[in-house]
C-alpha cells in the first residue's frame, strides 16, 4: 500500500511578523513561496525544485545552495506531528520526543507519517536575486572561489564540465548570489513550465556528443570572467522547473542520478578521482554540480549533508555499463569516508549504504513496523 499525502495540503498558521509558518505536510514548497514572498519571507532552505512537499523536505532533510550558511531544511523545523500506524500521534521537537524528532528528519519516511510541521522562514526584501557567474578553468580555482564566495554570498554552487580532462579537469561556471536589497529592479519570473518535452523520445538526446557540445558552448558562452545579473528567484533556484517532463530528454531508458559528499582533504583527491573517472568513462553528465557543504550539523540522525564537498551527476542509463561506473564511484566515496544521497539513489548496495550511514540500525529501531520501501529493503538486507 502506498500513502498519498497530497490531501494534507492546508495552511494552519502564518505569522508575517516573525516569519513562522505551520502547514500540513503535503503542502508544496511552491505554495509556501506564493503565500509568504509577498510578505517579505522566503524558504530557509530550498532544493532545486519547488514542486516537493514539506513532508518530503523533512524526510530527506533536503539541502540547497545555502548549505554553507543555513544547513539543511531540518535545521529550520521547530516541530511536527508524527502519526504511527497504530494510531499514536507524537508531537516532536528538539525538546519533546527529541529522539523521534531526530530520527524523522532525514528518516526516509520510515518512522510514520508527518501530518504537519512548523518552520522558521527567512526574511527577504525583494523577489530578485543579485547573482554573479564566474568562469573557472580548473578544479583548484573552484575551491578558491568557493572559499571567498561562501563568506559573502548566501547561495553558491558550480556547474562543472564533467567531460573536460587534463589541464581543464573540473572547469566550469561558479554561481553565487544574495537576495536583492529592497530597491532592486523588478525582474520577470520564468513562466511556470514554459517548455514541455511532449513525448517520450525514442533515444536519449543527451549522449556523449551532444553533452560535449553543450558543455563546450555553455562554458565558452560566458565571455567575461565575471558576469553580474539580477534575476527572479525562480530562474535562480528552479531552472529545471520551467521544462515540463525534462527527464524525457534521457529517452526510454531514463537516467540515474548520483550525488555524493566527501570530507575535505588538503588536495581534494576524492573529487579529482571522481571527476577523472567520469571524464575517462566519457558518458558525461548534463547536470553536473559541485558545492562545498558547510559545518552546520542537522538535527537529523540520517541526514546526508556533512562538512565536505558534494558532487551531483546525472547519467543516461546504459545498463551494466552505467551500473559498473557508479559502483566504481562508490568505491572512491567509501574510501574517502563520504556518503551517497539516498534521495537520489536507485542502485547503491547494502555494503556501501551501511558504510555511509553507520547509524542506520538506530533508524531501524524507530521505523514503524508497517512502513518500508524498496530502498530500505535493498540497503538493509545483506
Ligand atoms: C529537479 C530536482 C531537483 C532537486 N534538487 C535537490 C536539491 O538541490 N537538494 C536536495 O536535497 N534534493 C533535491 N532534489 C530531491 C528532492 O528534493 C527530494 O527527493 C524530496 O524529498 C522530494 O520530496 P517529495 O515531496 O517529492 O516527496 P517523495 O519524493 O514523494 O518522497 C520522498 C521521501 O519523503 C517521504 N515523505 C513524503 N511525505 C512524507 C510525510 N508526510 N511523512 C513522512 N514521510 C514523507 C517519502 O516516504 C519518501 O521517503 C531534487 C529533485 C528534483 C526532481
Put the structure in a nutshell.
The chain is α+β, with helices and mostly antiparallel strands and 382 residues long.
Number of strand segments: 17
What are the secondary-structure elements, in order, as H or E? EEHEHHEEHEEEHEEEHEHEEHEEHEHHH
Number of helices: 12
Instruction: Give the proportion of residues in helices.
Output: 25-40%
The ligands bound in this entry are: flavin-adenine dinucleotide
> Which stretches of 5+ consecutive residues score pLDDT under 50?
none
The biggest sheet amounts to:
8 strands, antiparallel
> How many angstroms separate the termini?
25 Å
Globally, the shape reads: globular
- Identify the strand order in the major beta sheet: 12-8-10-9-15-16-14-17
Radius of gyration: 21 Å
Mean pLDDT, all residues: 92
Structural class: alpha+beta
Strand content: 15-25%
Structure commentary:
By secondary structure, the chain is an alpha+beta fold. Helices cover 29% and strands 24% of the residues. The chain has helices at 29-36, 54-59, 67-70, 98-104, 139-152, 208-221, 233-237, 269-281, 320-336, 350-356, 360-366, 374-380; strands at 11-15, 20-24, 41-42, 77-83, 89-93, 113-120, 122-123, 128-136, 155-160, 172-179, 195-196, 226-232, 243-244, 255-262, 289-293, 308-316, 339-340. The strands form four sheets. An eight-stranded antiparallel beta sheet has the order 12-8-10-9-15-16-14-17. A hairpin with a 4-residue loop joins strand 1 (11-15) and strand 2. Helix 8 (269-281) runs antiparallel to helix 9 (320-336). The mean pLDDT is 92. The structure holds flavin-adenine dinucleotide (FAD). The site of flavin-adenine dinucleotide has 20 residues, from helix 2 and strand 6.
